[in-house]
Amino acid sequence: MGEQPRSDRQGVEESDSSTARDAMVRESRRRAAVWGILTGLAMTVVALGCIALLYLALGR
């Protein structure tokens, strides 16, 4: 009889920690997606800058 409430509490704690873990995973995936987009944009700007410099250097 003493074991039942403890196992019930443990189940609730596991679901709470699971929910918190899921939220952390979603947040980290969202952050990774944002950083991936920003990195891609930065690489595009650098590539366009290099192309512009080559065009100016070779076009003259």
Structure description:
With 60 residues, the protein is mostly helical. The protein has one domain. The chain contains one helix and no strands. The chain has one helix spanning 3-59. The longest helix is centred in the middle third of the chain and has 57 residues, at 3-59. The termini are far apart. The model has no long low-confidence stretch (mean pLDDT 84).
Walk me through the topology:
Elements: H1 3-59
Task: Give a summary of the structure in a few sentences.
With 60 residues, the chain is mainly α. It has one helix spanning 3-59.
Uncertain runs with pLDDT below 50, 5 residues or more? none
Global geometry: rod-shaped
Specify the oligomeric state. Answer: single chain
Q: Using DSSP, what is the number of strands?
A: 0
Secondary-structure element pattern, one letter each: H
What is the distance, rounded to the nearest whole angstrom, between the alpha carbons of the first and last residues? 89 Å
What portion of residues is helical? over 70%
Structural class: mainly alpha
Helical run tally: 1
Biggest sheet overview: none
Count of all domains: 1
Radius of gyration, in Å, reads: 26 Å
Mean pLDDT, to the nearest integer, reads 84
Beta content: under 5%
